[in-house]
Design brief:
The complex is a heterotrimer of chains A (about 350), B (about 350) and C (about 290). With about 350 residues, chain A is of the alpha+beta class. Chain A has nine helices and 18 strands. The longest helix of chain A is centred in the middle third of the chain and has 18 residues, at about 190-210. Chain B folds into two domains: about 5-125 and about 260-280, 3-Layer(aba) Sandwich (D-Maltodextrin-Binding Protein, domain 2); about 130-255 and about 315-345, D-Maltodextrin-Binding Protein, domain 2 (3-Layer(aba) Sandwich). In chain B, strands 1, 2, 3, 4, 5, 6, 7, 8, 9 and 10 form a ten-stranded mixed β-sheet that branches. In chain B, strand 1 (about 30-35), helix 2 (about 40-50) and strand 2 (about 55-60) form a beta-alpha-beta unit. In chain B, about 50% of the residues are buried. Classes of the chains: A alpha+beta (about 350), B alpha/beta (about 350), C mainly alpha (about 290). Chains in contact: A-C, B-C.
Chain lengths: ~350, ~350, ~290
C-alpha cells in the first residue's frame, strides 16, 4: 500500500508560516480564539474557541445553518472573521488569503477543473507552488495510486463516476501535503454503499498521511465512525467538544443528547435528583417485571428493528423508549416495568 | 443641418402627416430626396391641398440614388436628381416620361431653364432648384482677399489642416478640373495625373472628406474652408456672419436638381400632381426658403425669404463662368475612382 | 422517418440561413465574376477581371500595373479590426467578470445598461462622438476649461478616432458572450484554484480564461467581422481620409460604379472571415469531444 511521504509544505504557503514545532510546545496545530463572524446582521459564529491537534480527525457536526461550514471557510481562508484569531502553528492566519495557507480543501461538489485531465487536477497545487515538472509527475502518480485511480491520469473529470471524482478531489487536496485538510460534506453526493466505503477510505488516508482532517457534516453516524473528536455546533456556537464516545455517553445538553443518537429526557425531579433534566439512552433501559421496577408504564408502540426491538412506554414521567435485544413477546397496551443503572443517567445543563 | 437633425425632423413630420392623410386618404406619394431638402411645411401644405399622404426617404449622393433605383428598389414616386444624372437615369430607363411641357403651369419656368441640355423638351423632369459649387471660407480666420481656387488647393499655412472636401469623387474631380482649366469627364492621362497631383498635394491640408454636415462644420468653426454647395454655405453663413463664398476667377461648377419620376412609380398621377404643385410660384418660393436655394420658377422670389432671395451666394458676378458638369463615361469614372482610392491610402 | 422529421424540424433554421446568408453571398460571388455596366450594375460576359484588379490595376493610359493600394486597404482594415477586437476583449472581460460577481438583480440592470446603446441608431451614436470630439466639442471645451490645453486638440479624423468609434460600437458584442460563459463558471472552481496556491494572475490564466474561451471566441468573431466591414466610423470619425474595406466596397457600389470589383473584395473578405470561423470552430470544440 502506498503511503504519503511527509513532504514539506509547498513553498508558496510555507514562506508565510513558521515550520511546525517552531512555536511553543503547548501550542496546538490550529488555535481558534474568540472567533466571531457576521454576515450583515446575521451572526454566523459567536465567540468560537477551538484547538485542532496534529494528526487528528476532527468533525464539525450540526444541522444546516449551525455555522460549521462558515467555520471551515474561515479555516480555508475563503472568508475572514469579523473578530478573533486563527493561529496556525502559533501565527495568526485569519487575514491571509487561501493561497497563503498550507491548508487544502475538498469541496462539496469536488470542484474539479473540467478543462484539465485528472493528472492536471491533482498536479495543479504542486505546479502553483513551484514544483518541478518531473517531481510533479511522480507525485501525481503516487497520489493517484493512493486513491486507487492509477490508470485514470489522462481522463477528464466528466468521464469519471461520482466516487472516482471524490477520490480525485482528495488526491488533489492531499498532493501538496497540507498541514490541514478541510472536507466540506465530502460524502453527501454519494449513495449509501459508496458512502460507507469512502468513510473507511477517508479514515485510512488520514491515518496514513498523518495530516489533520477537519470534516464538516450533518450526518451523526459519519461523525461517530470517523472522528477522533467531534465538535457539535448549533446556532453559531460549539455546544460540546469531545471524543465520539464521550459525546454519546455524556451529552451536555438536550440538543446534543437529541442530535446524536436517541435519548429519553426526564425531569430530574422524577428521578429524585436535583437539577433540570436527565438523559437516558434507550439501549441502557431494561424492560422488567412491573412489580419490582422503578418505573412503570403501558406499552404504546412496538417497532421491530431486526436484531433489536424499540418499545415506546407511556410512564408518569412521560413517554420513554427502550431498545431491547431480540423480539420478546411484548404487546401494545401491556404493562411493563423500566429500569436502568444509575450511571446511565446523564444530567443535562438545560 | 446634419443627418442626425434630418432623421429627427423627418420622424417628427412623418408622424404629423401620417395622422392627417389617414383622414382624407387620397392615396400616397413616396419621395426620395437629398438630405435636408424637403420642406416639412410645404409637404403639409401639399397634403392639405390634395389629400395625398407624403412619405420622404433620403439619400446623400447621386450615386446612392442611382444604385438604389438600379438595384430595383421600387416604391418611389418622386426622386430628385442632379442634371447630370437625369440623363443617366433616362438612358438607363430608370425614370419615366411625364411630358412636363404639357403641364398648364409649364410657362412659369424661367425661359433660360426651360428645355435644358440634359432633358430637351422637359420630357422627364422639371427643375427643383439650382446652385453652384465652390469653396467657402471664414474671413475672420483667413483675412486676406481670395480670388482663386488656388488658395484652397494649395493652401497657405493658416488654412492647413482646416479644409473640408466633398466625400464624392465626381464632385471633387469636377471642381479640380475647373481649377486646372481642363475639360470635364476627362480621361486624358496627362490631365488626370495633373488633377491627381493637385489632390495629393492638397491632402495634408485636408481635415476630412465628407459631404455631410458641412454647414455644421463651417458654422462651428470645425473647418475654416470647405468645398461646398452654395445653399449649404448660405445657411452656415446665417449662423456665422464672417463666412464668405468664393466666385473664383477660374469659374465654378453649377448644378440643377430636378424632379423626376422613377419607372414603375406606384402613384404616377400623384407624382404629376406634385410636379405641377411645385411649378406654382408660392410653392416654389416656399421650397426655396426652406432649401435655401433659388428655384427656376418666375415670381417665386416674391414668396421667398429675402435672406435667400438676395443671398450673395446666389448672385455671381456678371460673366462668371460656370460649368454644368455632365455625366461621365465609364472610362473617366474609373479613372476618378482610381485617383480617389489612391488619394485615401 | 426520424430522419425526415429532424429535417423538417431543421427546415426553418436552414431556410433562414439560406435566405439571409447563403443567397446574398452567392449573389456577391456571381457578381464578382461578371463585368460592370457603365452606370452601376453588372452584365455579361463572365470575367475574372475584378480579382485581377485587386493586384493589377489599370493605369490612366490603360496599361495594367501591379498595385499594393488594395492590399494596403485590406491590411489596414484587418489591423484596425484586430486592434478593435483586442481592445474590446481587454475592456469586456473585466466588465463581464464584474457583472458576473454582482447580485442577480444588479446583474440584470448592468446587462441592460450594456445593451442600452442598441436602442439608439448607430449613425446617431457615431455622430454623437463627432460632437464630443471635434475642435469645438465637449471634450475640448472641458480640456480648455480645466486649463489642460490652450487650444483645441485634434481628436477627430485620425485612426485613433476610428478605433474609438469601432470599440464603442462593438463592445457589447464582446461583453455579452463572455458574460454568458463566465456566468456558468462554478465559483468553487476559483476558490479551489486559490486553495491550491494559485494567485490572481494564475487563477485568470489557468481557470477563468480557458473556461471563458468559447465566449471569447464568439465575441471576437462578432466584433472582428463587422469591424472589418464597417464604414460608418471610418467615414464619420476618420473623416474619410483613409479608405477601409467597408468604405471601399461602398465606394465601388456607388460612385465607382464597379460592382464586380466591390463584390470581389466582399467575397475575399467573407472568405477570410469564414476560414477564421472554421479554424476557431475546430479549436474551440469542447474537451470531451477531443478525447472521446
Amino acid at each position: 500500500m502506498t503511503t504519503v511521504s511527509a513532504r514539506p509544505a509547498p513553498q508558496a504557503a510555507r514562506s508565510y508560516l513558521k515550520a511546525p514545532g517552531a512555536a511553543a510546545s503547548t501550542e496546538p496545530l490550529v488555535a481558534i480564539r474568540g472567533v466571531s463572524m457576521s454576515f450583515g446582521p446575521v451572526k454566523a459564529l459567536i465567540d468560537i474557541n477551538l484547538d485542532i491537534e496534529n494528526h487528528e480527525f476532527l468533525t464539525l457536526l450540526g444541522p444546516s445553518g449551525c455555522g460549521k461550514t462558515t467555520l471551515l471557510r474561515l479555516l480555508g481562508g475563503f472568508e475572514h472573521p469579523t473578530a478573533g484569531e486563527i493561529r496556525l502553528n502559533g501565527q495568526d492566519v485569519a487575514p491571509l488569503p487561501p493561497q497563503q495557507r498550507p491548508i487544502n480543501t475538498v469541496f462539496q461538489n469536488y470542484a474539479l477543473f473540467p478543462h484539465m485531465t485528472v493528472a492536471g487536477n491533482v498536479g495543479f497545487g504542486l505546479e502553483m507552488s513551484g514544483w518541478r515538472k518531473p517531481d510533479i509527475a511522480g507525485r501525481v502518480e503516487q497520489m493517484l495510486a493512493m486513491v486507487r485511480l492509477a490508470d485514470y491520469g489522462n481522463r477528464r473529470p466528466d468521464q469519471l463516476s461520482g466516487g472516482q471524482q471524490q477520490r480525485v478531489a482528495l488526491a488533489r487536496a492531499l498532493a501538496p501535503s497540507p498541514q490541514l485538510l478541510l472536507l466540506d460534506e465530502p460524502l453527501s453526493a454519494l449513495d449509501q454503499k459508496l458512502r460507507k466505503e469512502m468513510q473507511i477510505e477517508l479514515k485510512r488516508l488520514q491515518k496514513e498521511s498523518g495530516i489533520s482532517f477537519v470534516l464538516v457534516t450533518h450526518d451523526q453516524e459519519e461523525a461517530l465512525t470517523m472522528s477522533d473528536r467531534i465538535a457539535v455546533m448549533s446556532a453559531g456556537r460549539i455546544l460540546q467538544l469531545g471524543a465520539p464516545a464521550e459525546i454519546y455517553d455524556r451529552p451536555v445538553n438536550r440538543f446534543v443528547a437529541g442530535f446524536i443518537g436517541e435519548a429519553n429526557i426526564l425531569p430530574a425531579a422524577a428521578l429524585g435528583r436535583s437539577g433540570g433534566s436527565v438523559a437516558v439512552r434507550p439501549e441502557r433501559v431494561s424492560v422488567v417485571e412491573p412489580g419490582a421496577a422503578r418505573h412503570r408504564g403501558t406499552v404504546a408502540s412496538i417497532q421491530y428493528l431486526g436484531s433489536d426491538t424499540l418499545l415506546e412506554v407511556d410512564t408518569p414521567a412521560g413517554m420513554q423508549r427502550a431498545r431491547v435485544r431480540g423480539s420478546a413477546g411484548y404487546e401494545v397496551g401491556g404493562t411493563v416495568g423500566l429500569d436502568w443503572p444509575g450511571d446511565a443517567e446523564v444530567e443535562l445543563q438545560d | 443641418m446634419t443627418r442626425f437633425g434630418k432623421i429627427v425632423l423627418g420622424a417628427a413630420f412623418g408622424l404629423a402627416l401620417g395622422a392627417q392623410a389617414q383622414a382624407q386618404s387620397k392615396g400616397e406619394l413616396h419621395i426620395y430626396n437629398w438630405t435636408d431638402y424637403t420642406s416639412p411645411e410645404l409637404m403639409k401644405k401639399f397634403s392639405e391641398e390634395t389629400g395625398i399622404k407624403v412619405t420622404v426617404d433620403t439619400y446623400d449622393s447621386n450615386e446612392t440614388l442611382l444604385a438604389k433605383l438600379k438595384s430595383g428598389a421600387a416604391g418611389y414616386d418622386i426622386a430628385v436628381a442632379s442634371h447630370d444624372f437625369v440623363q443617366i437615369l433616362s438612358r438607363e430607363g430608370l425614370i419615366q416620361k411625364v411630358h412636363a411641357a404639357k403641364f398648364p403651369d409649364y410657362g412659369n419656368l424661367k425661359k433660360e431653364w426651360q428645355s435644358p441640355a440634359w432633358d430637351p423638351g422637359n420630357e422627364y423632369s422639371i427643375p427643383y432648384d439650382w446652385g453652384t459649387t465652390s469653396f467657402g471660407y471664414d474671413t475672420a480666420v483667413y483675412t486676406k482677399p481670395v480670388d482663386s481656387l488656388k488658395t484652397f488647393y494649395d493652401p497657405p499655412a493658416e488654412l492647413k489642416g482646416k479644409i473640408g472636401m466633398f466625400g464624392s469623387p465626381t464632385e471633387v474631380m469636377s471642381l479640380v478640373l475647373v481649377y486646372l482649366g481642363k475639360p470635364q469627364c476627362n480621361s486624358n492621362p496627362a490631365d488626370l495625373k495633373e488633377a491627381a497631383a493637385v489632390l495629393e498635394k492638397q491632402k495634408p491640408s485636408v481635415k476630412l472628406y465628407n459631404s455631410d454636415g458641412i454647414q455644421d462644420r463651417m458654422a462651428s468653426g470645425e473647418t475654416v474652408a470647405h468645398q461646398v454647395w452654395s445653399g449649404d454655405f448660405r445657411r452656415a453663413r446665417a449662423q456665422r456672419a464672417s463666412l464668405k463664398y468664393l466666385f473664383a476667377k477660374e469659374g465654378g461648377i453649377a448644378w440643377m436638381d430636378n424632379i423626376v419620376v422613377p419607372a414603375h412609380a406606384p402613384n404616377l398621377e400623384n407624382a404629376k400632381i406634385f410636379m405641377q404643385f411645385m411649378l406654382k410660384p408660392e410653392n416654389s418660393g416656399m421650397h426655396s426658403t426652406f432649401a435655401g436655394y433659388p428655384t427656376a420658377v418666375t415670381g417665386a422670389e416674391k414668396f421667398t425669404d429675402p435672406a435667400v432671395a438676395t443671398a450673395p451666394e446666389y448672385l455671381p458676378p456678371k460673366g462668371w463662368k460656370y460649368t454644368f458638369a455632365p455625366s461621365c463615361d465609364e472610362k473617366a469614372i474609373r479613372a476618378y475612382d482610381r485617383i480617389w482610392t489612391k488619394l485615401r491610402q | 422517418m426520424t430522419r425526415l422529421r429532424s429535417l423538417l424540424l431543421m427546415a426553418p433554421s436552414l431556410l433562414t440561413i439560406g435566405i439571409f446568408m447563403a443567397v446574398p453571398m452567392l449573389v456577391a460571388l456571381a457578381y464578382s465574376f461578371m463585368t460592370s455596366s457603365p452606370y452601376g450594375g453588372v452584365q455579361m460576359p463572365f470575367s475574372v477581371g475584378a480579382y485581377i484588379q485587386i493586384l493589377y490595376d489599370e493605369d490612366f493610359d490603360g496599361t495594367l500595373a501591379f498595385t499594393t493600394d488594395y492590399l494596403m486597404i485590406i491590411g489596414r482594415s484587418v489591423v484596425l479590426a484586430g486592434l478593435t477586437t483586442a481592445a474590446c476583449l481587454a475592456v469586456a472581460f473585466p466588465t463581464a467578470w464584474f457583472i458576473v460577481c454582482r447580485a442577480p438583480r444588479q446583474r440584470q440592470l448592468l446587462l441592460f445598461l450594456v445593451s442600452l446603446p442598441f436602442w439608439i441608431n448607430t449613425l446617431i451614436r457615431t455622430y454623437c462622438w463627432v460632437l464630443l470630439l471635434r475642435d469645438e466639442g465637449l471634450v475640448n471645451h472641458l480640456l480648455e476649461g480645466a486649463g489642460v490645453t490652450d487650444e483645441p486638440v485634434t481628436l477627430l479624423y485620425n485612426d485613433g478616432a476610428i478605433l474609438l468609434g469601432l470599440i464603442y460600437t462593438f463592445l457589447p458584442f464582446m461583453v455579452l458572450p463572455i458574460y454568458s460563459t463566465l456566468e456558468r463558471v462554478d465559483h468553487r472552481l476559483i476558490e479551489a484554484a486559490y486553495d491550491l496556491y494559485a494567485n490572481r494572475r494564475l487563477v485568470f490564466r489557468r481557470i477563468l480564461w480557458p473556461l471563458a474561451r468559447p465566449g471569447v471566441a464568439a465575441g471576437a468573431l462578432l466584433v472582428f467581422a463587422p469591424a472589418l466591414g464597417s464604414f460608418l466610423a471610418p467615414d464619420l470619425l476618420g473623416g474619410g481620409r483613409k479608405l477601409l474595406i467597408g468604405s471601399l466596397i461602398q465606394l465601388e457600389f456607388t460612385s465607382g460604379r464597379n460592382w464586380p470589383f466591390g463584390s470581389a473584395i466582399a467575397v475575399l473578405v467573407s472568405t477570410g472571415v469564414l476560414i477564421a470561423m472554421l479554424i476557431q470552430a475546430r479549436r474551440g470544440r469542447p474537451p470531451s469531444e477531443l478525447h472521446a
